[in-house]
Design brief:
elongated, about 65% helix, about 5% strand, mainly alpha
Length: about 120
């Protein structure tokens, strides 16, 4: 089920709930939905930090691919790691467009590098 359909169902449910139990609970549901849309999942943030740390430590070298990252970290599938790399990519990333800091630069289709920051440049 798509996010749009889920959001519509939650919105309709909130409107019906407001009619039954009052507007304050319905407003709480709307605020919770807005927070869900605008904040990256905690797991994505932790994986991003793990990837950046592994690159800084020299455990991951060269271009990052979903398979390479998934092989380095147990419990993450290539599909999930591809999504994380894309979502935190400079200019086109889903979470970057919503105000999160870009952590990766796309160098080719499915290939990324950690975006250089002053702290990473000093470590190199």
């Amino acid at each position: 089920m798509s996010d749009t359909i889920i959001a519509a169902l939650i919105g309709a449910g909130a409107a019906m709930l407001a009619a039954v139990v009052g507007p304050s609970l319905a407003e709480m549901l709307r605020e919770a939905l807005a927070r869900m849309r605008n904040a990256p999942p905690e797991r994505d943030d932790s994986l991003v930090e793990k990837i950046v740390a592994a690159v800084a430590a020299g455990k991951l070298t060269g271009d990052l691919t979903a398979k390479k990252v998934a092989a380095e970290f147990d419990g993450y599938s290539p599909a999930h790691t591809q999504t994380v790399l894309a979502n935190f990519c400079e200019e086109t990333g889903y979470w970057v467009k919503r105000g999160q800091r870009a952590r990766f630069v796309r160098v080719a289709r499915g290939r990324y590098r950690v975006k250089q920051t002053p702290s990473l440049k000093r470590a190199a």
